[in-house]
Every structure is written in C-alpha cells, then in structure tokens.
Design a protein that fits this description.
mainly alpha
C-alpha cells in the first residue's frame, strides 16, 4: 500500500525549491520596503512585479509543501513571475538591493522551472 502524498517525504529538489521560493519571497518583501522609501512614479512597474513575485513564491512554496495536485502548474507560473521581477529589478542596476532581489528571483525561477518539468 502506498503512503498518502502528505506523509511522503519531500524530495531534496522540492525542499530546495521551497527554500528558494521562501528566500525569494522574503527578498521581494524587503525590496518593496526599499522601493517605498525611495518613492517616485517610475517604481510602480517594479512594485507590481515585486508584489506579484512575492505572492506567487509564497503560494508556490505552500502548494508544494501540502503536495497540491496543482503545484506543477504553480511552479511554472512562479518561474514566470520570478523572471518578470528579475527583469524589473535589473532596470535599476545601480541599486544593490535590486540586484540581490534579481539574483534571488533568477535562482527561484530556475528551480521552479525544474520542478515544473518534474512529476511531483
């Protein structure tokens, strides 16, 4: 008899992806705070990308942890949100916080793309 999905241990790849999602979520939240302190209208596009990425990465991690049957599709969407956020952050290449955020987004996107191609 097979164990229910919720009691099956997560694979190392899935654990790493959850950690990358949560790390990216945290970085996006910190970067949003930094953006708000800077102010300015040019930040609105970046703020939207940060918000989308923050919410998506958190939801993606939650769905993987509870072994949602939709986790694979969520990982694909999360990778897309992370790619868009990294690109938005790169528009402010002189800002160290933005560059750290872009790097976290790229790493998360890469891991989510790998999970999206895997069977969970």
């Amino acid at each position: 008899m097979t164990q229910p999905a919720s009691t099956t241990p997560m694979s190392k790849e899935m654990q790493d992806c959850v950690e990358a999602c949560m790390s990216c979520h945290t970085m996006c939240e910190e970067t949003m705070s930094s953006c708000l302190q800077m102010g300015g209208q040019a930040q609105m596009q970046i703020m939207r990308a940060l918000m989308d990425c923050s919410e998506t990465t958190r939801m993606c991690a939650d769905m993987m942890m509870r072994r949602s049957p939709m986790a694979t599709e969520m990982c694909a969407m999360c990778a897309k949100a992370c790619d868009m956020c990294a690109e938005a952050c790169m528009s402010m290449a002189d800002d160290a916080q933005m560059m750290r955020c872009a790097e976290a987004c790229r790493r998360c996107a890469e891991m989510c793309r790998a999970m999206a191609g895997a069977t969970m």
